[in-house]
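Propose amino acids for all 206 sites.
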């Protein structure tokens, strides 16, 4: 059975503009992000949401992004798809943190095993996100099965975060070298995953 999953990164926030570490901090979209999402929606960038199933991570910036693109839609929250929890480093910049010993130690960890104070490690983040993606794939497969006798194709639309999307794409294409930052889409953009029998057969960036 064929279906699609659409992963959309939320719009621009003050955290993006000021290059802050923020993941679980529940901040809203910046005015610039709202305007940009309206423009992108009007351009026809996004897939038609008729009969789609919608998901966010429950954070305000994902809730706002979903509503700006598709209007008020019934949806569920998939909290496992939240961005990395930066703990005590949340809402702080490199300039604010660079003289802290615990920050320097964390930044020097190339394997991603060390968490920031009161946060989670990159490896723990990867594992959490993949569990969340497995849940999303299962929901999409069930939707596809329920629609197997219809002409419409099952579509799941998840508004989440840049790091989350990158972790998912990295898991799909593990042989691509140095690909974590490669896969992060611009705010308001993302990927369509073409599914066959519950597995990703192809991807398309938008």
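Proposal:
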């Amino acid at each position: 059975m064929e279906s699609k999953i659409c992963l959309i990164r939320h719009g621009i926030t003050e955290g993006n503009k000021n290059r802050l570490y923020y993941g679980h901090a529940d901040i809203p979209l910046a005015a610039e992000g709202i305007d940009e999402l309206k423009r992108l929606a009007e351009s026809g960038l996004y897939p038609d949401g008729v009969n789609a199933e919608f998901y966010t991570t429950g954070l305000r910036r994902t809730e706002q992004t979903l509503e700006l693109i598709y209007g008020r839609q019934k949806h569920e929250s998939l909290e496992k798809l939240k961005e990395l929890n930066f703990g005590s480093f949340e809402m702080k910049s490199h300039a604010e943190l660079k003289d802290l010993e615990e920050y320097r130690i964390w930044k020097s960890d190339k394997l991603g095993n060390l968490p920031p104070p009161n946060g989670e490690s990159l490896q723990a983040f990867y594992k959490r996100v993949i569990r969340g993606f497995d849940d999303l794939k299962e929901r999409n497969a069930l939707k596809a099965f329920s629609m197997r006798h219809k002409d419409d194709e099952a579509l799941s639309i998840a508004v989440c975060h840049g790091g989350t999307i990158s972790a998912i794409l990295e898991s799909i294409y593990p042989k691509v070298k140095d690909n974590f930052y490669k896969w992060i889409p611009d705010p308001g953009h993302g990927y369509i995953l073409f599914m066959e029998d519950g597995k990703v057969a192809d991807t398309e960036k938008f």
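Helices lie at 14-17, 31-42, 60-70, 94-97, 101-108, 122-146, 162-172. The first helix runs from residue 14 to 17.
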